[in-house]
Predict the 3D structure of the following.
Amino acid sequence: MELILALAIGVLGGSGVWLLMRPRTFQVIIGLSLLSYAVNLFIFSMGRFPVGRPPVLEPGTMGDPAVFADPLPQALVLTAIVIGFATTALFLVVMMAARGLTGGDHVDGRARDR
Amino acid sequence: MQHLAILPILLPLLAGAAMIPLEEKRSRLRATIGIGSTLLLLAIAISLAVQAHADGGAGVVTVYRLGDWPASFGIVLVADRLAALMLLVTALLGLAALVFSLTRWQRMGVHFHALFQFQLMGLNGAFLTGDLFNLFVFFEVLLAASYGLALHGSGVARVKAGLHYIAINLAASLLFLIGVSMIYGVAGTLNMADLAERIAAVPAENRSILEAGAAILGMAFLVKAAMWPVGFWLAPTYSVVSPPAAAIFSMMSKVGIYAVMRLWLLLFGAEAGISEGFGGDWLLAGGIVTIAFGAVSVLATQDLARLAGASVLISSGTLLAAVGAGQLPVTGGALFYLASSALGIGALFLLIELIERERDVGADVLAVTLEAFGDGEDDDDQLDDEIGVAIPATMAVLGLCFLCCALVLAGLPPLSGFIAKFAMLTGILNPAGLGEGPVEVSTAGWALLAALVLSGFATVLAMTRAGIRSLWATTGRTVPRVGIIEIAPVILLLATCLAMTAAAGPVMRYMQATAAELHAPQGYMMQVIGRAP
């Protein structure tokens, strides 16, 4: 479990960083998306890996923290996903505007490299 | 007024939300709501500062618990001296930028006033929040609004700079999340005060994870604060965005400084055990390199807006290095410098638009090129025409304001920049307090001292050159038409700097008390956690 998750985060993060360095805006936005997936998984992994444990206590019971998952990383991931979604959408709009204004998809607004 | 601490977040949120459904042509109503909300924010910030500084100067930390949950479970807002100071400077800059935008900039794009209110909400929230994850949320709020403001007015240059700006900040936000989650994974809390309490008890095998998390988190802040080498985005972006946006952005780069100042002094102070002072050398060295880079950029630039952007770099570098020095008197001087330079740079961004209004793009480049390669014939012809032409009042006012900006930014007497720099230099030269203990200044201290003095010198040179080019030696230029409502915000900001100079004693006592609170955060921790740490 740990190995698979670590590999997934590593592959997503590595691909994301590589794409972020590329000169086309589309590659940059895909890179940012991949990176945010990697980061979301990473946050999730910080709550350790309890399998099959609920994060919410039963109403009216005291509950033993040992048999419950930590709800905070899950809440953080949800917030991070929502914020990441919104900012990616906004970035997409700016990307389209840049495409329309400069007539190319280079991140510096230059025409296609010769 | 126990609910005073949440008003700086709620008020701009409601004001901004109320503006969105209004039709685009009702700009007068929007402007009224915006100005009203910002004026109220100013009043709230002043009363929070008075409240924080009350109790005979001992200081009161107001803790606002949302939903009345105890600090380690719930979300807290903390209004102490530092937060109140930052709120006050934000409200002043916000008011000035908003009034400035009334004549033309508010009509250059849609939803300017709503975005501006959300920007203020994000800034205020980041200053008030007491836990790391809400700091992230408010960072995102202020960044999302700033993306809109950066693109306000549109145009190829703004969209191109905006694209870089957004990409860099999205990447920095991801670093922020990684850092926060690593710290949570090790310490099990995100509340800043709780974290400071637990940090000494972190077992040795987890300490490297904690420190790595703190370093990654710090990188996210340093990208915002534009430390070299992660600050190349700043000058190109700030120099093309619309002037009201640039003025409020000069506060935004101070958010990064604020976060470093707050968290580093809180988490890695004396009670952090073996992690004490973690990363301080990096802050100091990075700050000094940033000052050097800013000084070179100031000298190299031929464009006024770029000059202001490079001044932001110098200001950031000075603050980072001063915080990294980790001495109480230096921190106090740095806080004075923070307020003074934020106001001065904000005024400069607004002023530049007024000066450059009627000029051709590229005139500066041409002027410098002419000087470098010599073009004597033309100069002689023009000389005769120049004599006897009085400087009109508009140019005199603009020139005077420019001079004040230059004095504030370079740290020359008699304005507030000088007092700030003087306080920092005194702190560096007398580590044990003025007239007490042996005077042993470390090598790093000398380096910082040299950087402070030399960056001031570079600023003087660059501002003098720019001032002569754009205000003095301009032949055949039309005098810009400047309305009273446009110059008033600039004068307001500079008058605040002047007031800080006139009332330097009380203001400096407030700053020193803030610095003392930051260096000995036990009171802060006790108030937030609700028991003695």
In short: Confidence is low (pLDDT under 50) at residues 361-366, 374-391 of chain B. The first helix of chain B runs from residue 7 to 19. The two ends of chain B are 27 Å apart (CA to CA).
